[in-house]
Structures are given as structure tokens and as C-alpha cells.
Write a structure and sequence with these properties.
Layout: H1 4-15, E1 17-19, H2 21-33, H3 54-62, E2 64-65, H4 67-78, E3 87-96, E4 107-110, E5 121-132, E6 142-149, H5 155-166, E7 175-178, H6 185-190, E8 197-202, E9 207-209, E10 228-230, E11 242-247, E12 253-264, E13 267-279, E14 291-297, H7 304-309, H8 315-326, H9 338-358, H10 378-383, H11 389-392
Parallel strand pairs: 3-7, 7-8
Antiparallel strand pairs: 1-2, 3-5, 4-5, 5-6, 8-14, 9-10, 11-12, 12-13, 13-14
Helix pairs in contact: 1-9, 2-3, 2-9, 4-9
Length: about 425
């Protein structure tokens, strides 16, 4: 068993902790091995956390993490060998804090998977994440960068900033797969010129345009856009640039059609390709649509059918979020300030990436009812991490007991924590007054 890569990764991560490094790294080891913890203080029960439970909260209040250096460490150890195609997932997720009135900079966040006729919103923080997508949809994603979306920012602005910061660290031109939120002109303009090919999902009724016709010489301004191309409206398709028929991994019939030379009305100088994927076996349910639309902003020499069928890798991003929130307790700690929670989010990303690197070095630990024929999950690898911790060692220094704290002075005035309201990015529309008869 060669543990040199894991040990090197751990030491370089430790060097990214510029303050309270020992307590933060003890938290990393505790989260990595304590699979039975259901709350944040329970992590202090791990034998690898060499401090008292109150040091958990002090570590994130006093600690500092060099995010730029941590990003370089992630890219250095997690990118595959040269020659392999690299797919990156880009998405945002929410951490709900509806009752946390003492937490600043909370915004309105979307809540998925609610029953119909329910209002799918809450209050909390949002995080934008760039992950390395595996070949098959699973939880084996690797976090390359993670940033909080502040109230004065949008998810598109933060996503473009993340790609701009990752671009100098990459050795190839990866494909970035996103959901429908990023298939807009601001994102395409903000990422123009960056060494990324982008595959963005489109809404079914999205409208694109063909090139504008030549000026006619008549009075008036010439046309800026050509004929409309509306997804889901066959009367606007016209002649396709190419088509392909084949089968997916399960043997189901799939048809891919694409149209070149289109553009968005607010980004006319950027030519994109609209892609239509038709699943003949679909059940017409929201999670199993018969027709899917994408926009390709990348190399014109790319194989469009191969790119379109590769979008299924993006579903791993959702599985990765679920693993981090359910197993790694990402949304559980009630840390007061956004800065504290950002440090906790970086610790969760470090543990997730440690499991990805340890996947080939550890024999997964299965429950009696879990099948050994399936691919091992990150949680199964996490159960076995305690067996190699003694060989890995830790760069953290042992704790130094300082005795019992004297506590609060007698007669000290205790002031309540300040309260903060929710920051609304867009002001609600005023209600119209009814005219009197």
C-alpha cells in the first residue's frame, strides 16, 4: 500500500491553515473517521480530535485558511493524467438558515423537491462549487473550488470568477457542464476567452437567433437578428447541421440533432450550437424528459453526439452534494457568521477529496446488507479510514492544556448578539391599487 500521495496531500493541506492549524486539522481527521456522528459537537468524541468539544467552535472562529493555496493543492492532486478528457461540473447549492436571525448576509434561497403548491424558498446562504466529474454518475466527485455567493453577487458572477481563477492551474481544455441557470448571455460573456468548452442545458422554450441578413439599403436600421429558433417549436428548426442515431449504455434508442451558427440576442457576436437529444424510451416525467436541449460553446471540431451524451456526468454533482450534506454533515453546524461557515465548507471539501484519493488505497467496509458487486461508495471508504490513520500520521501538533478558564467576570454586562434581516437581491413589486368605481 503506497500512502505517499495521501501523506503529501495532508501535509500540503495543513500548510494552507494559516491560523489555528492544529485544531482545524484535528477537525479534518475527526470528520474523516467519525462515521457515527450526527451533530457537530459529536465530532469531538473522535480519538483523532485531541481537544475538548468547545475547541471545535473556536477553530472556525479563530482559524484562517488560504483559499488560493488550497485551490492549487486540489488541482495538483486531483486532476487525472494528461490525455484523459476532463469534465467539470459547475453548480450552486443552498444552506438553509431560516431562523438564524443573528447570522448576517442571509438571502432568499431555492428549496428543491417540495410538494406542489408549496413556496420553494427559504433563507440562508448559497455556495458555488466547481467539481471534477467521474466517468459514471456517482458521489465520487472531487471539489476543485468552493466559494460563497454573497448578497451583492449572483451565482453567474461567482461561477465566472471561479473559472477565471482555475484557468491558469489547468493543463488542458476541460468541458464545463452546467444546468439551465447558466445558459445565459452574462455567463457566456463573462467566460469568453477562457480555456473551457461549455455544455449548458437549455429550457425547452428558449429562443435563439440565426445570423442577421445583409442590409437591404432601405431606410431604417438594419436587422440585428435573423430568424427565430425556438426550442420545442419544430416550425422554427429549419435545416439541421447534423444528426445522429444510436443507443445509450442501456441499449435505449437516442437521437441527437444539432444546429450551428446560432446566437443569443444579448451576445450576438458569440456563435453557439443548439443540441436536441431525443430519448425514445422516456416516460415523460419531470426527471425523465423525452426531449432535452443544450447549447454548446466550444470547439467546432468536437464530436457533438459524444458531447451531448456525456452530459449525464453532470448528475454526479447532485450526488456529491447529497453525500456532503447527509454523511459529512455540511449543513448541520449552526455557526453564526458566514466566514465561520466558509471555513467549515472548506474542511468538508478537504475530507471529500481525501476520500477520493484514498479510494484505491483502502478496502471498503460494507454493511451485511450492502452488495459487494456494486462500486464502493465514499461512505463505505470512509468507514475504513480509521484503519490507516496510524500509518498516515498527522502534521498537527498535540494540544497543550491551559487549565480551567476563569469564566466570565462577576458583574459583566452580557449584551445580546445583533440581529440581521434577510437581504433581498431584487425589491418586491409594489401592489397595484384598485381604482374606485
Amino acid at each position: 500500500m503506497n500512502l505517499n500521495i495521501l501523506q503529501g496531500f495532508r501535509h500540503e493541506v495543513y500548510a494552507c491553515f494559516t491560523r489555528a492549524s492544529d485544531a482545524l486539522f484535528n477537525t479534518v481527521d475527526a470528520l474523516l473517521t467519525e462515521t457515527q456522528a450526527q451533530s457537530f459537537p459529536e465530532l469531538s468524541l473522535s480519538p483523532y480530535f485531541e481537544r475538548r468539544w468547545c475547541s471545535l467552535y473556536e477553530a472556525f472562529a479563530d482559524g484562517r485558511i488560504d483559499q488560493g493555496r488550497l485551490r492549487q493543492v486540489f488541482v495538483k492532486y486531483l486532476l487525472p493524467a494528461e490525455g484523459e478528457p476532463i469534465w467539470l461540473g459547475l453548480d450552486a447549492t443552498s444552506i438553509q438558515r431560516p431562523q438564524s436571525r443573528t447570522s448576517p448576509d442571509r438571502t432568499v434561497v431555492y428549496v428543491p423537491n417540495l410538494p406542489e403548491s408549496s413556496k420553494p424558498i427559504s433563507y440562508g446562504w448559497q455556495f458555488s462549487t466547481v467539481v471534477l466529474l467521474p466517468h459514471q454518475p456517482s458521489s465520487w466527485t472531487a471539489v476543485l473550488d468552493q466559494q460563497r455567493i454573497r448578497s451583492e453577487q449572483t451565482s453567474v458572477e461567482v461561477a465566472a470568477t471561479q473559472l477565471r481563477e482555475l484557468a491558469p492551474l489547468l493543463r488542458c481544455r476541460p468541458i464545463v457542464a452546467t444546468d439551465r441557470w447558466y445558459s445565459c448571455a452574462p455567463f457566456l460573456l463573462a467566460t469568453e476567452g477562457l480555456p473551457f468548452d461549455k455544455l449548458l442545458r437549455l429550457k425547452r422554450k428558449r429562443v435563439l437567433y440565426r445570423p442577421a441578413p445583409a442590409p437591404t439599403g432601405k431606410r431604417g436600421a438594419p436587422r440585428k437578428d435573423g430568424e427565430r429558433f425556438q426550442c420545442g417549436n419544430p416550425s422554427t428548426y429549419g435545416q439541421a447541421s447534423g444528426s445522429w442515431q444510436g443507443t445509450d449504455a442501456k441499449g435505449h434508442l437516442i437521437e441527437v440533432t444539432w444546429w450551428n451558427g446560432l446566437h443569443l440576442s444579448k451576445a450576438r457576436h458569440l456563435e453557439v450550437t443548439a443540441i436536441r437529444v431525443l430519448h425514445h424510451h422516456a416516460t415523460y416525467r419531470p426527471r425523465d424528459p423525452r426531449e432535452s436541449w443544450f447549447v454548446w460553446d466550444g470547439s467546432p471540431q468536437a464530436c457533438i453526439p459524444e458531447v451531448a451524451l456525456g452530459y449525464r456526468r453532470r448528475y454526479s454533482h447532485e450526488h456529491g452534494y447529497r453525500f456532503e450534506k447527509q454523511s459529512l454533515l455540511w449543513a448541520v453546524p449552526r455557526l453564526r457568521t458566514p466566514a465561520h461557515f466558509e471555513r467549515w465548507s472548506q474542511v468538508v471539501a478537504i475530507v471529500h477529496n481525501l476520500l477520493v484519493l484514498a479510494r484505491a488505497q483502502v478496502q471498503p467496509e460494507l454493511r451485511p446488507w450492502e452488495s459487494s458487486q456494486r462500486e464502493a461508495s465514499p461512505q463505505q471508504v470512509r468507514r475504513a479510514m480509521a484503519k490507516i490513520m496510524a500509518q498516515l500520521g498527522t502534521p498537527a501538533q498535540p494540544s497543550k492544556p491551559r487549565g480551567k478558564s476563569p469564566g466570565r467576570q462577576t458583574g459583566a454586562v452580557v449584551r445580546p448578539a445583533p440581529r440581521y434581516g434577510v437581504v433581498y437581491k431584487s425589491q418586491p413589486k409594489p401592489k397595484k391599487r384598485r381604482k374606485r368605481a
